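Predict the 3D structure for this chain.
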Amino acid sequence: MSIQKHATLFLATLALSCQAFAVRPMVSPRYHRMHRFHRVPWNPVFKPSHESLLLQNAEIDRLNLPRIRDDKQLQQLIGSGELVAIVPSESLRIQPSLDPERRFCRPWTLDFVQDLSEAYYKAFHEQIQVNSAVRTVLVQKKLRRHNRNAAPESGETASSHLAGLTVDLQRRGMTKAQVKWMEEYMRPLKQLGVI
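Done. Predicted structure below.
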């Protein structure tokens, strides 16, 4: 499915929100201490705006999608098929430290990420990495304790990760040409004002 079809549905506009395409993985501080990595400042390709967060949350409300409170509700959504697994492929990999219970998203988000990763692989013969996907309210609260840029777990600008609509993609290691390609691929969504 093309990016235009996704954009027409407006659902894919949430697939890569303002939190997505982060410079650094969204992983626990423990992981960084264990691997002695230095944190890289958060720097999205498309800087988030208050308006884009409001628009995303309005769409979540319009679709009557729940913000996932806890692991029990998460498992119910997985069991019902409302959330689907993100599966590694030739064009897509998952950050190894991402909890297997958090490697899920909405079906249309997965369609978008697969289309994006396949196009990227065709252009560069390299995989795109998913660093973060669905989160519960509890996980988002914990994330905000050590990441001041993380969206709130509630309110009109709450993280769209809570509805399973958003994935974060790794930017670290991309060349200037690859970043430019990604910006161009995302430009239709930017023009719609949703990222």
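Residues 1-43 have pLDDT under 50 and may be disordered.
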